[in-house]
Design a protein that fits this description.
The structure holds two protein chains of two kinds. Chain A contains two helices and no strands. Chain A is mostly helical. In chain B, helix 1 packs antiparallel against helix 7 and helix 8 crosses helix 9. Classes of the chains: A mainly alpha, B alpha+beta.
């Protein structure tokens, strides 16, 4: 697997982690009612979406530039 | 003598040599970290109620470090792509950003997170003396709320000499908020945003203590696992940073001028290693900080 392929795998795992942190924050907020965790959840979900957008952008760019090894 | 297959692919493998080498190396790394993760999970599953610390790590700082590592993976892949496009200047800047991310990660770990732990104290109370320290443990409250028993009193140790001096008969501890106010419902859950130590001092007699130590690997299986895995991971980060520094220095520019594809392949191999190290952290962070 090339660095390009591994990077996409890594971004998928990072995205899952960001969604996981968001879910964890929501869980803590629901159990404890601590608003700061809700803010954390929103930030995490925003980061997760940003990672998805980045992943798609990266894949398309690599394909366009034909940097495929 | 020229080393073969550094740029062109071997006919039998279809790959250049270093790529085969790095994946063999990463396979061995999977086994190393896999064993440690398995050990951690089994230790945790086997821990008696109340004996596995939770919520002792600083989640915001850990999250920041995670974001830094993810960012460094982006910059290293952009550095490689810049080399592929023969844009050395852009490569230089992306590589510098990667190095800085690695250095920041290590600095936070070694200057902030670890020393904070080394400065903290915990004393596990003997089962027969738990009642004597009920005001600090709040086990009746914990039992009523169906929480695991509280067996440890933590905080900052005022008389650090007590750890080694048998003549000193008690520990003087500035208590953590949980032990200062154990029946407060806010203390029923771990605090992932760390709360400062209180002014309330507890005197704990040594004869009532099962074991007492600073938050070092000797404290518990939890901290032994934490320091082993994060320490080993930190050494990998350090190794990656050193390789990147070498590839960022002028010596690599000479290679770039002579054979740019060779440098690009070197960066790709180092980048694969870096991604693996970052991927390890993606598992370390939720395991130790959140769950």
């Amino acid at each position: 697997m090339s660095l390009k392929g591994f990077h996409i795998v890594f971004i998928i795992f990072s995205t899952l982690l960001a969604f996981g942190i968001g879910a964890w924050c929501v869980w803590v907020d629901l159990v404890e009612g601590a608003p700061i965790y809700l803010a954390g959840a929103i930030c995490s979900f925003v980061v997760a979406v940003a990672l998805v957008v980045y992943g798609v952008w990266f894949y398309r760019k690599m394909k366009r530039l034909r940097i495929i090894t | 003598m020229e080393i073969p297959y550094t740029v062109s692919t071997r006919p039998d493998t279809g790959l250049w040599n270093a790529k085969v080498g790095i994946w063999l190396f990463l396979a061995s790394e999977v086994m190393l970290f896999g064993g440690l993760f398995s050990a951690y999970i089994f230790l945790r599953l086997d821990a008696p109620p109340g004996m596995w610390p939770h919520g002792l790590l600083n989640v915001p700082v850990g999250t920041m470090n995670t974001a830094i590592l993810i960012l460094s993976s982006v910059t290293v892949v952009l550095a490689w792509a810049a080399l592929k496009m023969r844009r050395y200047r852009a490569y230089w800047w992306y590589m510098l950003a990667t190095i800085l991310c690695g250095v920041i990660f290590l600095t936070v770990k070694l200057v902030y997170e670890w020393p904070q732990k080394f400065d903290h104290f915990g004393a596990y109370i003997k089962p027969e003396a738990l009642g004597k320290y009920e005001q600090y443990l709040g086990n009746k409250h914990a039992a009523a709320k169906d929480l695991p028993p509280r067996l440890e009193i933590t905080g900052h140790l005022h008389n650090r000499a007590a750890l080694n001096d048998p003549k000193i008969k008690e520990y003087e501890v500035a208590l953590d908020p949980l032990n200062a106010d154990p029946t407060n419902p806010a203390m029923d859950r771990p605090h992932f945003f760390p709360l400062p130590v209180t002014d309330k001092i507890a005197k704990i007699e040594k004869e009532d203590v099962q074991r007492a130590t600073m938050f070092l690997p000797t404290h518990s299986a939890y901290f032994a696992s934490y320091f082993t895995i994060t320490g080993l991971h930190g050494m990998h980060v350090l190794g990656g940073v050193l390789v990147f520094i070498y590839m960022w220095l002028p010596v690599s520019k000479k290679l770039y001028q002579r054979n740019p594809e060779h440098l690009a392949n070197r960066v790709e191999v180092a980048g694969l290693f870096w991604h693996f190290v970052d991927l390890i952290w993606i598992f370390v962070f939720p395991l130790f900080y959140l769950l």
